[in-house]
Design goal:
single chain
């Protein structure tokens, strides 16, 4: 097994673990009373650009979009939809490659410059 194939397999496993952790975090946010502390705010006494993003995410998950806008408007309008789009695109293309429907790369692989098309010839095994 060459280094490129090994790196790609590790990269794909890390993404799957990350998505499982995201689902777990959403579950914990919806079922438990967790309190997140902003280290930036604790140390410097000013709000960081991401302050309110956790509360906004929780409100979006609960379907309260207008309330989420009050916590962090930039995050709700741009970053949250973009991250959801990237995650869904990544999952769809990973499954399509698993069932050999496509060989194209995901946007995350393109942004991180990872070669998503791994050659499985005899010389690479």
């Amino acid at each position: 097994m060459n280094n490129t194939r090994l790196f790609y397999i590790v990269f794909m496993c890390m993404r799957v673990v990350l998505y499982i952790l995201i689902v777990y975090m959403i579950y914990r946010l919806l079922t438990g009373s967790t309190r997140f502390i902003c280290n930036w705010n604790e140390k410097y006494g000013i709000l960081c650009p991401s302050c309110g993003a956790t509360r906004a995410t929780l409100l979006i998950i609960k379907g309260q979009f207008l309330e989420a806008l009050k916590y962090n408007t930039l995050y709700v309008v741009t970053l949250f939809p973009l991250s959801i789009f990237l995650i869904v695109d990544d999952i769809i293309i990973m499954f399509a490659r698993l069932f050999k429907i496509t060989k194209k790369r995901t946007l995350i692989e393109i942004l991180l410059e990872v070669d998503g098309e791994v050659k499985y010839g005899k010389e690479h095994i």
